[in-house]
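Inputs:
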Amino acid sequence: MSVLVYTESESGKFKKAAFEVASYAKEVANMLGTTVTAVSINADNSNELGDYGVDKVLEIKNDKLSAFNAKAYADSIKQAAEKEDAKVVVISSSADSKFLASILAVYLTAGYASNVVALPESTSPFAVKRTAFTNKAFSITEISTDIKVIGLSNNAFGLREVSGSATAESFEPSLSEDDFAVEVVSVDKATDKVSIADAEVVVSGGRGLKGPENWSMIEDLAEVLGAATACSKPVSDMGWRPHSEHVGQTGKPVASNLYIAVGISGAIQHLAGINSSKVKVVINNDPEAPFFKAADYGIVGDAFEVVPQLIEKLKEFKANNA
Amino acid sequence: MKILVCISHVPDTTSKINFTESDTKFDTNGVQFVINPNDEFGLTRAMWFKEKQGASVDVVNVGGAETEATLRKALAIGADTAIRINTEATDGFYVAKQLAKVVQDGSYDLVIAGRESIDYNGGMVPGMLAALTGASFINTCIGLEVAGDTATAIREIDGGKETSTAKLPLIIGGQKGLVEESDLRIPNMRGIMMARKKPLNVIEPIESDQGTKTIKFEKPAPKGEVTLVSPDNVGELVTLLHNEAKAI
């Protein structure tokens, strides 16, 4: 038996989330006294996974899997899990992983806990801590099946480098036509921008920005921080920014290390979506804005004066710490 | 086209979250329940299919009698028939098994579920339902058209969107984007009156295992006070983020 981890990649390169789930899988394997096997799909440089505790990599190279396909990916990972006799399977919380995980759980007759934020509290019974009620509570969840699938929340565990090396072997799952019943016809993706899901830092703007013409300020702040840009619901509803940038309960969830809200009052629906971010900063001219109760750091002031200064100070900081 | 919309009965976003029975049960005392927001976007899209393409729309929920008000609201919005599976929704797999039976018995062409409920946030029921029934599946769906036996769906991906096609039967995990907030419908008096006469069928659950169970709930540690930085000293924020929060 081993712990299996699905290490996601994009254009052949492992995502940061892949190293995070590998780090997590390594700790779980230590708890269980076993090893970590990763399964990768069309990824290069498997040896990188060794730095995060992976012992063996099953490399799948298949042109038919070049576009993400939930069923085909789930079927592939299922076959890898069976080959390795894996009792625990760890996956990330990316849009793709969340898509395939529930299918994988059924294929493996496995109990599945998503949004897991910490190492198992115990392995017998197998209990993990996950978020519930839109980050307003945690559930200590027991997974009672023989095989367990864990969906790890992004940025919840971090990276843990170890000195190790991974051996690679090629793996060819047998896929059926049914796996490809959903056909991708087009992908529209901004490749030059950090996505909200992958970002360490997210800079988000609200109605306080007064209009779409002022957005360059948010973009400049994001650029100096290497951050993704996001917005509140009213901003996307008014069409100032695309819906894909809307974060909050009905928008995208954010679990970044640093979340900076500019001109966002902090409605409960907004906070619900960003609460799992580690450090929250708010800049707002209204000291009564509810966001100040949720934030770690705040500046009560005019965003149009504060943000340009913040950009300057960050540039100085970067120059001094380069 | 036969559409089934899965409806979760969830506490309103503004509800206080508390637990009882030694932190093992959600405290429903004084809590207002609503249709899960992600499901409501799906239900509204289903109404579009009903009105423009003559689809029939049933709604289903797994839960006790206390959830019927939520199903009646879905009927008032325009669904034709409601089904309540009379059992407590304890685990995603258990719920998916119950729903799979309804989907198969009813030969539905399209099943619309929300990408996740806002109470347990598992986000697992739609995918499990697809795996159990063998139907095609599109998650985080923000656009859906059906022509004949083929659906074209847009899904939100990290950093963009993706368009794909699939043959019916199809199950989607939907969200905002299927329709916009401004498209959501508040039931009118006529809808509410009609909903009282529409069938709400209660069926008993089937035997099923469950993969997980909550041992207990915990609330996050109370958050400390915000550290305020003067707008005249913005550099201080950079220092704090670096030295104290270690976020940059």
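The domain at 201-320 of chain A is CATH 3.40.50.1220 (Rossmann fold). Flag for discussion at group meeting.
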